[in-house]
Write a sequence for this structure.
C-alpha cells in the first residue's frame, strides 16, 4: 500500500486576525505552510500531497512548493472536515488500503522523528493513529455559571495533534458517515471514533504547536531556530 498526505489549508485564520490567513505568515524565512509541507516531503516514501485551499486563494500557487511534482491542489470547504473530505475525493490515484497522513497547514514545527514514530506505530494498528500530547494542566469541568464543578482526572486526557494516519477508504467513509449525520468532526480521529474505531495515540513533541494566535508564531520561530529535528 502507498502513503499519501492531505494538508487542510482552506481556513481564514479568524482568531489570528491578520490580513492574510495565518498559513501565509512569514516564519523563519518562508511561510508557515511551506514548513508544514516541507516536513511531509522529507518523508521519501510519500507518493503525493494534496493541499486543500480556500476558493479565493491567490497565494499558494505562487509558492515554490506549488511546483513540486508531488504537490496537488484542490478547493476545500467551509469546515476543516469538509476540506479533508474534498482532498480525499481529489486523490483519485489512491486505493482504499493506502495510508493517508492528514496534517494541518498551521503546524509548521513537525519533526522527522514524530512522523517516523507515527508511521511505525500507527501502521501496525488495525485502525491507525494520531500524534498526541499529554495534558499538563489541571482540568476543570465548569457549570453553566462558569464555576468549577469538578476536577477531571488528566491521566487519561490527551491533546490531539497532527499528523493523523488512517487508511484512505476507511477515513473517506467515516467522514461521509459523520457529515450525513451532522456529527461534529474536529479531527480525523473523531470521525474514526464515531464508526467504532479506536485510533492509537502516539506521544509526540510538545513543539508541534498549531498556529492559532500571533504569540504562537513567536513560539514557532523560537522552536525552528533551535531546530525541531
Ligand atoms: N482548515 C481548512 N478548511 C476549513 C477550516 C480550516 O482546511 N474550512 C484548515 C486550516 O487552514 C488549518 C487547519 O484546518 O490549517 C486547522 O484549522 P484552524 O486552526 O481552526 O484554522 P482556521 O480555521 O484558519 O483558524 P480560525 O478557526 O481561527 O479561523
Ligand atoms: Mg478554524
Amino acid at each position: 500500500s502507498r502513503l499519501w498526505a492531505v494538508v487542510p489549508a482552506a481556513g481564514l485564520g479568524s482568531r489570528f486576525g491578520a490580513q492574510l490567513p495565518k498559513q501565509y505568515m512569514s516564519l523563519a524565512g518562508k511561510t508557515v505552510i511551506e514548513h508544514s509541507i516541507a516536513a511531509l516531503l522529507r518523508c521519501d516514501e510519500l507518493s503525493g500531497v494534496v493541499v486543500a485551499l480556500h476558493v479565493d486563494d491567490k497565494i499558494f500557487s505562487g509558492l515554490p512548493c506549488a511546483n513540486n511534482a508531488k504537490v496537488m491542489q484542490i478547493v476545500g470547504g467551509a469546515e476543516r472536515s469538509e476540506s479533508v473530505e474534498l482532498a480525499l475525493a481529489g486523490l483519485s490515484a489512491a486505493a482504499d488500503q493506502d495510508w493517508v497522513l492528514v496534517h494541518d497547514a498551521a503546524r509548521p514545527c513537525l519533526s522527522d522523528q514524530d512522523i517516523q514514530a507515527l508511521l511505525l506505530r500507527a501502521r501496525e494498528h488495525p485502525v491507525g493513529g494520531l500524534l498526541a500530547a499529554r495534558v499538563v494542566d489541571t482540568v476543570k469541568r465548569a457549570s453553566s455559571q462558569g464555576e468549577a464543578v469538578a476536577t477531571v482526572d488528566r491521566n487519561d486526557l490527551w491533546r490531539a495533534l497532527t499528523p493523523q494516519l488512517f487508511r484512505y477508504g476507511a477515513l473517506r467513509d467515516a467522514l461521509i458517515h459523520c457529515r450525513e449525520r451532522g456529527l461534529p468532526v474536529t479531527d480525523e480521529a473523531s470521525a474514526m471514533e464515531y464508526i467504532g474505531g479506536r485510533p492509537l495515540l502516539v506521544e509526540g513533541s510538545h513543539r508541534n504547536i498549531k498556529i492559532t494566535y500571533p504569540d504562537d508564531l513567536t513560539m514557532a520561530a523560537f522552536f525552528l531556530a533551535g531546530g525541531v529535528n
In short: The chain is about 30% helix and 25% strand. The domain at 3-128+160-198+209-226 is CATH 3.90.550.10 (Spore Coat Polysaccharide Biosynthesis Protein SpsA; Chain A).
